[in-house]
Write a structure and sequence with these properties.
By secondary structure, this protein is an alpha/beta fold. Helices cover about 25% and strands about 30% of the residues. A five-stranded mixed beta sheet has the order 3-2-1-4-5, with helices on both faces.
Length: about 210
């Protein structure tokens, strides 16, 4: 029987749900030295076979010796590009640690109780404002991490999509990376624990 394994790619590491609990543990590759403003997993491409081996061994230690039956449900940063998404898929799919990979952005995973809402998060590169409707990203705006205005982002959130202009939507501030202090007054803050609790039980059909 296939086992779905929730995973979160944060700004600094990969978090994988433990088999017997709702806690997450970190997978860190030895000697990886990320560059400024570049996602750390880009470094995996320089040592791809080695990184895939270590990841497979990590999954085997946590979930048993038949990793090829697993499905990895990967939550990715909101500013992940199309090419980065392909790399993530190929890296994990070809690691031997799973039989399938599915992805969802962090913004899409922020609320299970609202069909419409605004997500605000911050990666190593950007502040990301998104409007989510029925689990789809309907609108997205990116702001350079080194040059943004909290006031401007607040104003943009009011008109990011025509739905929001006419009827509003709740705002969720994703603090999984503990870097959203500037935005705590803009909406409901989702702490790292809150976020991981939401991901621990995940509906693969929505990914």
């Amino acid at each position: 029987m296939s086992k779905t394994i929730p995973m979160i790619i944060t700004n600094d590491t990969i978090l994988v749900k433990e088999k017997e609990s709702d806690k997450f543990i970190a997978f860190n590759m030895p000697s990886i030295e990320p560059e400024v403003n570049i996602p750390f997993y880009h470094e995996f491409a320089k040592r791809i076979a080695e990184c895939q081996y270590y990841f497979k061994e990590f999954i085997k230690k946590q979930y048993g010796k038949k990793p090829s039956k697993n499905i990895l449900a990967i939550i990715i940063p909101d500013d992940t590009s199309a090419l980065e998404s392909i790399f993530i898929n190929e890296f994990f799919l070809n690691s031997g640690a799973c039989k399938a990979v599915v992805q969802m952005t962090m913004g899409q995973a922020l609320s299970k109780n609202h069909t419409r809402y605004i997500s605000l998060s911050k990666s190593k590169r950007n502040v990301i404002l998104e409007y989510i409707n029925n689990n789809e990203v309907m609108a997205r705006r990116l702001y350079d991490c080194s040059d943004y205005s909290v006031k401007q982002i607040y104003e943009d959130a009011k008109r990011i999509h025509i739905d929001v202009e006419y009827s509003g939507a709740p705002v969720f501030v994703n603090n999984i990376n503990m870097n959203m202090d500037d935005f705590f007054e803009l909406g409901e803050v989702i702490s790292p624990k809150d976020f991981m609790d939401k991901i621990a039980v995940i509906d693969v059909e929505k990914l």
